[in-house]
Design goal:
mainly beta, two-stranded antiparallel ribbon, globular
Length: about 160
């Protein structure tokens, strides 16, 4: 069962590996300490969702709105953040790693304006020329890898004006 931070049920079915919650309104969802593989949250509204100390493998957040979400202390392997709105997201102490097959996590076309990256492990995570990082953040010293994304016309930034 997935509840929001107010205790309201967002999804009655138990969370499981490979679950498809794409395009859903999951504002303020409580994913704290969740351990899952292959969760599809592409295109979901995850504003202010809480992923505190979650362990998520192959998490798909393509084109998701994660403004104000927290990934504090989370372990994220092979995560797709492409075209995600990551404004004001807290990645403090998060570990964003390649998957076990060596495929990198990706921030291509993502907007990380105002995100907190203090203490985050980011080495090996990919970004592209359209990725927007927090003011003053330099990706090179943190081990991020600049890539050219093929078919980048498919990547449309999801961030709209903050409401």
């Amino acid at each position: 069962m997935l509840m929001n931070l107010n205790g309201e049920v967002l999804e009655a079915e138990p969370l499981r590996d490979g679950m498809d919650l794409s395009g859903r309104n999951l504002t303020r969802a409580n994913f704290r300490t969740t351990v899952l593989d292959g969760l599809d949250l592409s295109g979901a509204d995850l504003r202010e969702a809480d992923f505190y100390r979650s362990d998520l493998y192959w998490l798909n957040l393509f084109n998701s709105d994660c403004r104000g979400a927290s990934f504090f202390g989370a372990t994220l392997e092979g995560v797709n953040f492409k075209s995600a709105c990551l404004r004001r997201v807290d990645f403090s102490e998060a570990r964003i790693l390649p998957d076990r097959l060596g495929r990198a996590s990706s921030f291509a076309h993502a907007d990380l304006t105002g995100a907190t990256l203090a203490g985050a492990e980011l080495a090996g995570t990919e970004y592209d020329s359209k990725t927007i990082f927090p003011s003053g953040f330099e990706p090179g010293p943190h081990g991020l890898i600049l890539v050219e994304v093929k078919d980048d016309w498919l990547l449309v930034p999801v961030c709209k004006d903050d409401l």
